[in-house]
Design goal:
Layout: E1 14-20, H1 27-39, E2 44-49, H2 64-75, E3 81-83, H3 86-90, H4 96-107, E4 111-117, H5 118-121, H6 130-136, E5 138-142, E6 159-162, H7 171-179, H8 190-199
Parallel strand pairs: 1-2, 1-4, 2-3, 4-5, 5-6
Helix pairs in contact: 2-8, 4-6
Adenosine-5'-triphosphate binds next to helix 1, strand 4, helix 5 and helix 7.
Length: 205
């Protein structure tokens, strides 16, 4: 881990893809994206809020537009960060194979680097068309407190493991804190605290 050399072509743009439900987006997501962007010399990181996260169908998920707007608010001040509506606008359950195909169409020849926390990386073989994912993007697994980061069973050369500053923050914990009237200041960006308050998200949970 440290300064990373990942496979790329000469002169190609290097685009990070940070997929997530972002309910709400928090500083763990933002630090992971920022750290990977620096270590992998990325030109841009595209945040992609999920439409319908099918592996979270047993949980209540906030409306996609609220999660999208919180992601825009959280990333607006960073010129390297952008937000894609691809997974939201496609409709239906969200599969990363579709996300990557859509981004490949938009960004042409760019090299894609899909960023996942240790918990998501451990589940990747359960994702739709898992074996094909690695032909569309390089995958970057990042450390996350409480989870073991490993590429066991994943294609050789398809995944890099990266240590990022440890932030023991989860969206679940943020939602529970709001529901209990506890503060989420400094766990999520200030604008996201205000958006949660304005829209009265997570109050009844
Ligand atoms: N604190 C963190 N540090 C590193 N990676 C994280 C952190 N929180 C989330 N991630 C990663 O960001 C991506 C999107 O995560 P997601 O939007 O599901 O947030 P979450 O905090 O895991 O949400 P929830 O608690 O609702 O499951 C996943 O790849 C996840 O592993
Ligand atoms: O492709 C799949 O089948 C698949 C299954 C579960 C999760 N994902 C993706 O993994 C990312 C993190 O998801 P989540 O549910 O932890 O927020 C997000 O981009 C999801 O679309 C993808």
């Amino acid at each position: 881990m440290g300064e990373q050399q990942a496979p790329t072509g000469p002169g190609k743009r290097r685009i990070g893809v940070m997929g997530g439900t972002f309910d709400p987006i928090h500083h763990g997501h933002l630090v992971a994206a920022s750290e990977v962007a620096a270590q992998f010399h990325l030109d841009e990181v595209v945040f992609v809020p999920t439409g319908q996260p099918w592996q979270k169908s047993h949980k209540q998920v906030s409306p996609a537009e609220d999660r999208y707007l919180m992601t825009v608010i959280a990333t607006a001040s960073n010129p390297q960060f952008s937000v894609s509506r691809s997974d939201i606008d496609r409709g239906g359950p969200t599969y990363t194979i579709d996300t990557l195909r859509d981004l490949r169409e938009v960004h042409g020849e760019a090299d894609l680097f899909f960023i996942t926390g240790a918990d998501a990386l451990a589940q990747i073989l359960t994702w739709r068309d898992a074996e094909e994912l690695f032909s569309l993007s390089h995958f970057i697994g990042v450390t996350r407190p409480g989870h073991v980061l490993t590429d066991d069973g994943l294609p050789e050369g398809g995944v890099s493991l990266v240590e990022v500053p440890a932030l023991a923050i989860s969206s679940t914990d943020c939602r529970e804190r709001v529901a209990q009237g506890e503060p989420v200041w400094y766990l999520v960006p200030d604008g996201v605290v205000r958006y949660i308050d304005k829209r009265q998200l997570y109050r009844g949970e």
